[in-house]
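Sorry to interrupt, but I need a hand with the structure work. Could you write out one complete protein record for me, on any chain you like? Could you add the entry underneath, on a fresh line?
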Amino acid sequence: MRNLILFDDGHPGMAPLTDLRAVFELRTGSLTTAERITEQVGEHPCALAVPSHIADLMASRHMELINALPKGDNFLFVNGRYPRLTVQIPNQKNTAICDARNNIAILHCDRPAAEAFISDQSQLPPHVKMADSSEIQLLERPWDLLNQADENLEFDMNILSKRLRPLVEDPAPRVTVVGPHPVLIGEKTTVHPHVVFDTSAGSIAIDDRAEIRSMSVLVGPTYVGRDSVICNHAHIRGHSIIGPVCKVGGEVNSSIFQGFANKAHAGYLGDSIVGEWVNLGASTVTSNLKNTYGEIRMQTDPYGQADPTGRTHLGSIIGDHVKTAIGSRLLTGSCIHTGAMLATSGFSPKFVQAYAFLTDSGEQTYDFEKFCEVAKAMMGRRAVSLTPQMRARLAALHPNHIPTNAI
């Protein structure tokens, strides 16, 4: 019996999206990478290998073994930065398939090699041969999720079609469907009158218990997750991915919502990624195109430089628990880290560090206890608790955090 193990190799370039989750938990299409790999391999992971700083957090929300091996002598490791399997899994044990940079994407191995690898995913275990595969593209930076989203979204539609059902020709009074691609809906999905589904360029999938309110327009390819609400008069343009338990209004284009986020009011969001527990105030607007139409650069590291993204359209990367006030304006290629609060009347900085509290008076550090009060209130509205493990991880990200071993 083969044991599937998903691993996070700790690649630092994906922050802030991986501050509070393993890289395989990222929503890289309609599905997370973990969900997609599980579907492709045809078996559930029996263990997860993650960096030590999120091990307790992962153990609090997953039943699988964390950084430990189950019994057996046949193991398949898949890198969480490999969103979709595009090569055949090697049949021979102790064989690794790597990308052009020699990063391990897939490792099929026996127990001795697995024991070595689970303790250090940066090293190729002894007696394992490496096969290069230039077609493998691992996630390197946050905007890679947008680069690969269309292919993953199309792939996921085939998976979702096994579970969701096609919308009937007359699904509700005065609902309009345009285009040749299907509209797929889940159980207890509500579609109100005067909704337009435009599938001219791709399919639309509406998952279980989602609600599409009147006067909204959805353009495919697009996915709306379970228990999410598309508000009245919303315009959800193509290539949009909205995770579970979101409330989304205004205009959205080519963007990804991880889940549990609010953008209920007017305002444009384009070519952006939104983390969990984010609230975008009314008329929050992102710019996603430079006036020069040139390549966009983005700074994701507080001590680093702005890096070329290879994209001419890129809005904002917004970390978990970020809040914006009404009328907030985000510049092209902005990166907002975990727990930040934006409440300025002008343009926000292109780089905002974790727990920054920005007003017209300047920047302060968000008080951690006050932050937790707000987080508990927002999460409680979705019947989700702020666990001790999540609080500890959030505390570790705070600028004023004192490591336990320093006390």
Remarks:
- The chain has two domains: 3-132, 144-368.
- The chain has a mean pLDDT of 94.
